[in-house]
Q: What sequence folds into this?
């Protein structure tokens, strides 16, 4: 069984030890909700905390598929901005910064130890109450870059190589392709988009057919670009990072916090449901290296995703495992 024995069973383990058991690129979605290291929970100097975060981000980047999605949450925007920079450093750019608004205009919710009245806190603190957390969503669309040249790659290389090999077989230059299709030649023209890695793009059906005709007419007796366009398009979509557009959803999410439980900071199932539905497909493998209250694994189980998760705290693992047998009801989402 090997590492596959980890799937579907909560592990009591350090996050780094958990991820080191996984092969490269086997995970399609990672949701990381690390210890925030703030207030009474601050265990490390800031520099040490960021160094530790870089260690698990590096491992997460390794086990994540080239077209996978990596989400990180935090309550401190300045800290999260630094974590986002680290994720980008390991090859995946920022797609979205999400503000999770837990207040939703509901005066019955509790914040900072006191009830809310409009946007004024009755205990008199001289600042606005903190009723938001933040998430960053990172993925890569096209050029896959890492610090290691050995691992550097290009997500769409199979398609690019096919198109360019057919061009070379037909003995056409980029300029001849541009001329033959009547395309602009400034900066290399559209041919550079079809055959080179820089700003690569899949041709439209019309342009693909035009390329096929050009190749065949230029080199009489040849038969070029024999693959059906529908097959190319299907492969292209399979190589892109998953994004199942949820519709009228902005980067500000109004989702109430989870009910108080045995865990000090549980995430609501509605939050994880949105992330999992939008950035993974059924059957995909999801990793949550910080199990916490077990929200990710419960939602994955309900949405038919495979999952791996663990926590260094034995009590969290034991309680989350018990909760897994009794999935919580999805909280009703509140909208503005």
A:
């Amino acid at each position: 069984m090997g590492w596959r024995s980890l799937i579907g069973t909560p592990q009591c383990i350090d996050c780094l030890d958990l991820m080191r058991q996984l092969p490269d690129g086997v995970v399609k979605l990672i949701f990381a909700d690390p210890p925030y290291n703030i207030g009474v929970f601050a265990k490390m100097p800031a520099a040490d905390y960021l160094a530790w975060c870089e260690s698990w981000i590096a491992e997460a980047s390794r086990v994540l598929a080239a077209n996978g999605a990596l989400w990180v949450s935090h309550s401190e925007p300045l800290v999260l901005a630094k974590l986002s920079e680290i994720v980008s450093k390991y090859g995946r750019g920022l797609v979205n910064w999400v503000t999770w608004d837990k207040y939703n205009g509901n005066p019955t919710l509790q914040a900072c130890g006191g009830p809310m009245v409009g946007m004024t806190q009755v205990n008199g603190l001289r600042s606005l109450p903190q009723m938001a957390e933040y998430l960053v969503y990172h993925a890569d669309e096209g050029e896959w870059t890492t610090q290691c040249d050995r691992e550097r790659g290009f997500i769409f290389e199979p398609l690019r190589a096919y198109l360019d090999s057919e061009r070379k077989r037909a003995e056409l230059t980029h300029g001849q392709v541009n001329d033959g299709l009547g395309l602009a030649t400034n900066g290399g023209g559209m041919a550079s988009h079809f055959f080179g890695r820089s700003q690569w793009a899949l041709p439209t059906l019309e342009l693909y057919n035009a390329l096929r005709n050009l190749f065949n007419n230029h080199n009489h007796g040849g038969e070029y670009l024999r693959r059906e366009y529908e097959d190319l398009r299907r492969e292209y979509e399979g190589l892109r990072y998953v994004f199942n557009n949820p519709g009228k959803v902005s980067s500000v999410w109004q989702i109430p916090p989870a009910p108080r439980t045995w865990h000090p900071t549980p995430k609501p199932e509605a939050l994880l449901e949105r992330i999992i539905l939008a950035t993974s497909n059924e059957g995909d493998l999801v990793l949550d290296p910080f199990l916490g209250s077990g929200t990710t694994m419960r939602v994955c189980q309900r949405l038919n995703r495979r999952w791996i998760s663990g926590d260094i705290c034995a009590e969290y693992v034991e309680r989350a495992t018990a909760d897994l047998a009794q999935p919580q009801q999805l909280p009703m989402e509140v909208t503005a």
About this structure: Residues 156-239 form one domain.
